[in-house]
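ok trying again, last paste got cut off:
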Amino acid sequence: MERTIYASCPVCWAPGMQTEEDWKNFAQGKKEIERTQEAPKLEFTTPLFRRRLGQLCRMTVQVVHDSIERFGCKDLPILFTSVYGEINREFTIDRSVITEGAVMPAAFSLSTFNAPIALATLQCGIKSGYEVVFPSKGNFSYALQAAEASVFGGKKDKILFVYGDELFPPEYDSIQSVKEVNIPIPNIPLAFAVLLSSKEPDDFPHSKFSQADFCSKRNPIDFLKMLLNANG
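nice, full thing came through this time. structure:
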């Protein structure tokens, strides 16, 4: 018997998307996310905390904070995924290694794959732990399968699933059109969080999906549009 998974309306952040109507239009293909370096201001954090954060970390902190505000899910485990991670900071580190032969410790610590969600849990006071999943070969469905497995096989029947990717460094623009270069996920800055449950919840609006439908999307954009249309 195929299992059913329940998903809340996603909490999203992306450049140029200001209102719920913007996200509805995005889900229907009537509006595109702006490909800019714009990032949340994170006014609920201290200047010291946010001053070194890049676009991905800022977006991730924002959607986790907003999810807690909306759903009160501070005690739930988190599963975070990203296709490219802190790609801007990684590029800066690579360039530093080539030109200077050294890497600053602070720059390295903020470049790790778990940095965005680690910073979000620190800022939001989350102590329930998190997992980080890298979707091999850019196949987002692998992350969805891990989320589905966590909901049905973990210690709790609910988790907060968080995705984020930032805009590529401009130095990468010249290679994106090269056919031999495999860029499986569009270069779109976006973060979203969705509350997932194995049991039908009575404490938040939700939509239900079959296991096969939930895990079918190979692209986070397609998955987000499915959620938005289902909860619209």
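cool. The mean pLDDT is 88. Strands lie at 4-8, 11-13, 78-81, 130-133, 158-165, 190-197, 206-210.
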